[in-house]
Structures
1.
Amino acid sequence: GRLDHFVYSASLGATLREQSGAFRHEAERLNQVLETMVEGVMVIGPDSRVVLENRALRGFLGVPTPLRGRSPIESVRHPEFEAAVTRVLTGRQPEAIEIALAHPGVSRPEAGAALQAFNVNLTPLAWEGRTGAVAVFHDITRVRELEALRRDFVANASHELRTPLAAIGGYVETLREVEMSEEDR
């Protein structure tokens, strides 16, 4: 009896250590994936507090220390982001928003100062019978800059073409309205 109990306890202990090691290895691998992602990731618990975030998000926000325990508005100083988090936590529906934030290190962006643009996808997350959320931040700053360049180019090109076209149009009108010989025309 005692020997069987000892063998069973040793076997159970070995199994638990093995499972614990497997769980730890899996958690380390998931953390490695999270930390090497280009997108910023934030996990928000049902209490509207940050539970987890990755290095990319801390870089986007210019925050060197973890955000764990902070509220969404303390972490990402944008009212639309906080409102979207609240809607996802209460409505349990995914949502996508676009927000603009000052570059890290710029405490008060002046008029015309460059902003970072983010597309943020928020998804509800089942959390022990309650709802949390995952927010994924895609940096679309370069896309917005290229769109602005394209708009400026089209506006400049159309402006530059308008002047010579107006002059040519004026000449054509003159040729149509003024009486002159076919040779002169």
2.
Amino acid sequence: MRVLFIAQQTDYEPQGIMYLSSALKAAGHQVDLVVATHRNPVEAAREFQPDVAAYSVITGSQRYYLDLNRRIKREVHGLFSVFGGPHPTFFPEMVKEEGVDGICRGEGEEALVELVNALAGGGREAVLGVENWSFWRNGDRGEAGIITNPVRPYVADLDSLPFPDRALVYERDPIAARSKIKHFLTGRGCPYNCTYCFNHALSAIYRGKGRRFRQRSVGHVIEEVRWVRDHYPLEFVVFVDDTFVLSAEWLAEFAEKYPRQVGLPFFCNTRANLVTEEQVRLLKDAGCHSVSMGIEAGNDRIRNDLLKRHMSKEQILEASRLIREGGLRFTTTNMIGLPTSTLADDFETLDLNIQARPSYAHVFIFQPYPRTELGEFTREHGWMVGTFDDIGELAWDHSVLNFDEEHKRGLSILQRFFAIGVEWPRTVPLIRRLIKLPDNPVFWLLNKLWKGWAIKNRVHPVKLSLREVAETAWHFM
């Protein structure tokens, strides 16, 4: 069978698609990828003539992919179109949309291979019982025509999965292939229940189906990094796990083996209430250059009651001190425009970041993603304007909450200048005046220039040629 993955863009290597491709190829299927920023997907599908078109969808991108799929189906006769990723997993009603033949909930390696094998062996009727999938049958897209199968257990042994298929992405995205910074995943799942995140919702779907958090062995991770280093440019490793440091035993083994067998600097995510002097020492010994941790909100009520972060300002500031004194750079992540919050609360978040003194402070305007606890709270309590279809793809684009226009304008401007205010606290009084002005391209450019400089020189410090600087800037602008 011929399977075509279709992506709108690939800012980073899409780990999910790469793992799915490896599983399909191991089962003997032919796989290709089209990236819309590099080639017209309709034209690519017309040329490749896939049996299956596959889309990985986040909330905010669903309308783009649904429209694109309808156009591709007009060009490829008999195409079976499937959708996976966060949005279909938590919004299974997507299966009712025109042009959707199936949606996958949860982990997809085994589920997609079984579905494609079933299609190859028996056609559309043969797939109706495949676990993790929802389908419609007999042309009935109403509730009575929907088949929703249970999910299979989590993949318990992540080492059993083949390495992600990087060639699939790098052959179609030469900028990603040439980049000296590449991204890796060491585990899956998270034991925490932050209300804005999907982990608690995914846990509900998988209740009784295995452990939420699973991690590959240290040796397996190192083997993948070494393979990539031997085949592609690689000078800096970014581990994209939600929290890299959950297992102290795993981290100790990693700190002992990674410097000897790989020796490349890396970035990872931690969590303020987990940071200890010993953890920082192990990361430093392993070759870690920079870490990131979520502050999210400066106000105690918002951070702990609304977001369920369960950490104090004192823990956050102590973690910041330990990281700095341990010789690591660090960034923070933050949200503004949360339901029940005010601009005064958002400036409190800015102030806590100023005290923490990160190398760069990321800030996002809150988006209420479907089926998350906070997303449902936002909708049920009337904080949301419109529907989930109104959410944009960019978490710094705009607010869909029921704030007045002055508040929304203030959020947009604060997002532009948040990191600048953290770096230069004396600008905060000016920022308080600027939030009364309309957004404009100058504000956007200032935000991009400071972010680009800070990430390039402090967080992911890789020496780049003039061409590489230009390519990277264009890629992320």
3.
Amino acid sequence: MKRLYRNARIARADSPQLDEADVLVEGDRITGVAPGMGNVADCVEIDCSGAILLPALFDLHVHAREPGQEEKENLASCTEAAINGGVTGFVMMPDTTPSIDGAGTLRSALESARRTRLGPGILAAGAITKGRQGQELAGIAGMQAAGCVLLSDGGAPVDNPQVLRRAMEYAREFGLPIACRGEVRELSGKGCLHEGRVSYALGLPGIPSISEEIGIARDIRLAEYTGVHLHIQQVSTAKGLATIRRAKERGIRVTCEVSPHHLIFHHEHVGDYDTHFKVNPPLRTPEDNAALLEGLREGWIDAIASGHAPHTPFEKNQDFASAPFGITGLETALVSLHHHFVTTGALDWGTLVRRCSVEPRRLLGLDPVPIEAGGLAEFVVFHPDRETTFSRSFLQSKSANTPFLDRTLRGCVERVIFRGIELLAR
């Protein structure tokens, strides 16, 4: 079936401006992009007046929870959550039960992913160490042969620098990026939010920013020594980003990501012990928010990744110190970024396309999906003048541990096209 998306505005990575055009899709390809396209025979027309077409998002950091934690999420529900948010590809983290730390578990995870509606759009990270325990290297060669695209211990730092060094050397030889979240666990201790005036006022142990910053610095020095491509996950502090910037300027192979919640929220949003704001690394300060946003604009931050981390209501309804860290984000990322930054002029559509679609794919050696003739039809029809209410009935994830629960934001994912197939049409 041929489909013609008329009267759209096209978002491109190389321009802050939106171009008006009609987009013709035949099979899995875009066969025409031009303003005022004439009549096309045997074609279904979709009026996109007022809407923006942008390349579909790709998320580098998703905790899909399958196998072993299906009460929180499974690959089917995670896929539907992704589609709901305009995401057509993501990397599932290996912090499952059992961990994805060998060829067998990785193949099994990918086979489960292939049965979802995103199928080949879902990729897998393999663990750095067996059981994510930081002691013994995982089966890196076997996982690479089975289709692993990234190595990560899924939010757990590798405390032993010698173990991480050896992992980096193996990763370099197999051409795999290695992803780490900066943390020195001895400094984090039993902290549960950013160490500062809010943690003191609430009487809760804090996680100091130096825990992350020292961890980032250490991992960068190891990456410089080994020559591996190091990807820093979920940067949350201005000084941590400054360290990454200096490393980039020196030519070290380091990239990094930021999560929407680290751009939008800060530690004062925790309020009266609201566990929807409990995440690791913790929400920092307004000054950190501003520095991260500037780093995103300037290009020192390569990608935006949701860090989607679902938990059951029972878990999140515990007291703040006992509740698990984590915020869901697949369904809220695009709309929340639009609401908070695009409508205010803090970010333009070109930056959003680069950080949410182009660079995450490029980081893994994947082709981007620009909206141009001859390209793969993989895009989102986004309506900036409509609203989305993130009610429990709207959310497709099994879990709803998001600060946006029951909030209404400006912007709406109207349609999602994946390799020519419409997966969502509101």
4.
Amino acid sequence: MDLSEVKIANYNGQRVWMVRAQEGKFLRHFRNGSVITISHLDKFYDHLAAQTNDIPSDEVIHKLILSDPDFLDTKTKTKIRKLNGAGRNRYHQILHFINDIKKGDIIVSLDNSKVMIGVCQSSKAHFSSRAISSSADPHSHTTLKLKHRLRKKVAWGPTISRQNISGLLKGTFQSRHTITNLTDHWKDVFGLLYPFFTDSSSLYYSSHIGTRADINGKIISKLFDNLSNAQIIAKELMKGAITEEFIDSILNDELDWDDFNLTAKAFFMSPGDVFNKIPLPKGANASFSLKVLALVLLLMSGQTSAQEAAQQLDPSVSSTHLYTPTDMIDERYLPTNGTDNVDRLLGELARKNSERLEKMKTAQKTAKIKSKLKLTIPKHETSVLEGNSGIKVTRMSSNEE
């Protein structure tokens, strides 16, 4: 496994929105135009006729919708004109689009077969009358054009098959609203994109069961046992050395169950997803803690080996060399924040403990479990989603981000 491709994403509170036009008919237009759009205001307002690109105020939009008898509440007995249910829905959808979707927010759009994920690039909405084709090829003879005028810029990242969506998102994606707030499901959305992500208090691990066969109960229970052990192993690894006594205590299930804090949310139909959460240790270097936990989770789910990880994390050291105790960087002397020397220390810990880590992996049958379940982690091209106006990430084998 190339650890430089494994990222730990940081969730910093941005909202997540599902936006689609006419039930996904314009998904390819969204990508081609690098936009999201809605048509809700076009029925009442023409920016070309108004000779201004300024967005109308909320009050003006309310009055414009009220002027249409289709959206006027005719059952009210008061003289105050009010919107009916359809009018209120349209009004709030417009306001969500204009006022609530901000730069840096995660955008999800979809059709019947695909889910596309991007990052909003501008808090300010704009008008445009330029029709958008579904293809970037000027010679493509596409007839359906996107003409919705109210737009926001979006940088689109990966497209994921809806067949690979399980759990709560599967039902949520059935919503027919043009705009839906998915912020309560941010963990599920991040889990589609990244193998690891953090909210600064916990590390989340996302893996995918790819087999379509019935799942053997013994195998799935052993997977959860291995993942639960990861937190305890990482804690021991941060001390510097894993002992034979510690390995025996793990293999013989001698540790107090109250010491295990990993939790799981699983949708392991065949195929399906497994999401794990581990609280981060307090007072330790944040980058070091994240990477140690992530590495052990990869080891205990059979995704990599300790020696392979050591070579990638600290390639300057030959496999036959070990730092002397005076050369070893001690985690106790790492500042709470910062990334200097983190990879070197983690690489040396992996190398120093590789034999015993591999012994534990063999005893816990991690390779067999991975093979039987066809266990993988998300591997999408997400670079478009990252950067100054997007998601911040740390690479497993690099301190550069």
